[in-house]
Write a structure and sequence with these properties.
The complex is a heterodimer of chains A (270) and B (196).
Chain A: E1 6-7, H1 20-23, H2 38-42, E2 52-57, E3 63-66, H3 67-71, E4 77-84, E5 89-99, H4 100-106, E6 115-120, E7 142-146, H5 147-151, E8 156-161, E9 164-165, E10 175-177, E11 190-196, H6 203-207, E12 231-234, E13 244-246, H7 254-257
Parallel strand pairs in A: 1-4, 2-11, 5-12
Antiparallel strand pairs in A: 2-3, 4-5, 5-8, 6-7, 6-11, 8-9, 8-10, 12-13
Chain B: H1 2-31, H2 39-68, H3 77-99, H4 104-113, H5 115-132, H6 136-142, H7 144-150, H8 153-165, H9 173-195
Classes of the chains: A alpha+beta (270), B mainly alpha (196).
């Protein structure tokens, strides 16, 4: 239980949140298996303490920091965000976290810091899918943002949800939440944050470049090659009410983020 | 004679109930609210999975009969095939009802634009044509053409494995396993045909 986080209404949607039980049993965290139920099953004993995060690249204060030191100066807030998975389902989740921008400023990125890359822990012993011979993802999982995307006030570093610390299957102890992008951008269990001048590689883009781009902004006008992105199924759904709703550009956050992509052809840069 | 037919009947019931179990299991999960946050997706993929397994069992009859002398299997092959059709029908019905909500715009979009849906629907049409001609009466009426018609099980199985392969996100262990099985079962038939 995490107490004392103030609710940030200005950064919250007023939609019904998913029941906690569903948010912790319906996960894509392929390191623990590719079935939605696998992470809840196989991440139970995942060790998140001690935890260190390496800050590297174009910053004035690089180094390996203990998680407590990473988190210490930041006041947590409670924000309710939409989460839109690239597989065309969505949930509404109350996160506990702080703006990524506040974290980044502390390490004083230099003028060469044009992009930020994040990396998930590599731990073959604890993460069975990292041992699989039949997987196509080259572990560890990496994701990235352009620096202005990372500095946007919507971009959240989360340590909890529903008033509790993050369960392992949801990305404990530290994860990213970028609500206007498909869920796979919101990388879990982060151990490294690297600042660079060039666009970093991202795991799904390496695995299937024609299906997953670097930007991965939620966009109903650009279909995934194998399925439509025009609609989504808001979960939890029941069999008799599939809860199909129209997907919104930038997942409904266009007012806050559309300006970041002015002049870009988002059909090509998907 | 009487004992033999009783044994056959017992075998029929055992097989019939075993292949019904996956459905009963899903119904149990449905009634106990144990299908998860996305019951539609889970139900659709499970039904598709069991359709594939039943079809693979029906394709295994010939190799098993020849290699291990399990001649009795042939008496139940129609049941295996009809179970494959049964689960495929439920798979399609669950897709249209629970995933697409019978929204015609979504159904039309899926059936015309998505290659994996298109091959799935084609496979289902083939299975349908086999299911409606599966009765003894149709077998008699069609004579030699019946056998030729039922060779459609081979293209159907290939369409289904393509349908399955096109679902791969990153891990292809299951798809590889069923592809190898299919290659062995179809390859064995080619081998027999060439030898004779």
């Amino acid at each position: 239980k995490i107490a004392g986080a103030a609710h940030n209404a200005a950064f919250s949607v007023k939609e019904k949140t998913a029941p906690y039980y569903h948010a912790i049993t319906h996960n894509n965290f392929y390191e623990f298996g590719t079935d939605k139920r696998d992470p809840a099953r196989y991440a139970k004993s995942f060790k998140t303490d001690p935890w260190q995060v390496e800050i590297s690249g174009a910053v004035a204060k690089p180094g390996v920091y203990n998680l407590e030191d990473i988190l210490a100066p930041h006041a947590l807030e409670d924000r309710i965000y939409r989460l839109r998975c690239v597989e065309a389902w969505s949930m509404v989740i109350p996160w506990l976290g702080f703006p990524l921008a506040d974290l980044i400023k502390r390490f004083e990125p230099t003028s060469k810091a044009k992009f930020v890359q994040f990396q998930t822990i590599l731990d073959k012993e604890q993460m069975s899918e990292q041992r699989s011979s039949f997987g196509t993802i080259d572990w560890p999982y990496v994701e990235g943002l352009r620096i202005d995307e990372a500095m946007n006030p919507l971009t959240l570093m989360a340590v909890g949800m529903y008033g509790n610390a993050l369960p392992p299957q949801n990305g404990a102890p530290l994860r990213l939440v970028v609500p206007w992008k498909y869920g796979f951008k919101s990388i879990k269990s982060i151990v490294r944050i690297h600042f660079s001048e060039t666009m970093p590689e991202t795991s799904w883009n390496i695995t299937a470049p024609d299906e997953y781009g670097f930007y991965a902004n939620v966009n109903p006008a650009v279909d995934h090659p194998r399925w439509s992105q025009a609609t989504e199924r808001r979960l939890p759904a029941t069999l008799l009410s599939p809860n199909i709703i129209d997907t919104l550009p930038f997942n409904g956050y266009a007012d806050q983020v559309a300006h970041l992509y002015k002049g870009m052809d988002l059909n090509r840069l998907f | 004679m009487f004992a033999a037919s009783r044994k056959r009947l017992a075998r029929w019931w055992i097989l019939f109930l075993s292949l019904l179990l996956p459905l009963l299991w899903l119904v149990k999960d449905l009634l106990t609210n144990n299908l998860g946050a996305d019951p539609a997706q889970y139900l659709v993929s499970q039904l598709g999975y069991w359709a594939l397994i039943c079809l693979w069992i029906s394709l295994a009859v010939t190799p098993l009969r020849r290699l291990f002398g399990w001649g009795w299997l042939i008496q139940h092959r129609r049941m295996f095939g009809l179970y494959a059709f049964f689960y495929a029908s439920l798979h399609l019905l669950a897709f249209a009802t629970f995933l697409a909500g019978w929204r015609l715009d979504i159904l039309l979009r899926e059936v015309t634009e998505r290659p994996y849906v298109i091959v799935g629907v084609l496979a289902f049409i083939l299975l349908l044509s086999l299911a409606v001609t599966s009765t003894k009466k149709m077998q008699r009426r069609l004579g030699r053409r019946w056998q030729q018609l039922h060779y459609l099980i081979y293209p159907a199985s290939i369409l289904i494995i393509i349908h399955f392969i096109w679902q791969i996100r990153s891990d292809y262990a299951e798809q590889l396993f069923f592809s190898i099985l299919l290659a062995l079962m179809l390859g064995y038939r080619l081998y027999i045909k060439r030898r004779s």
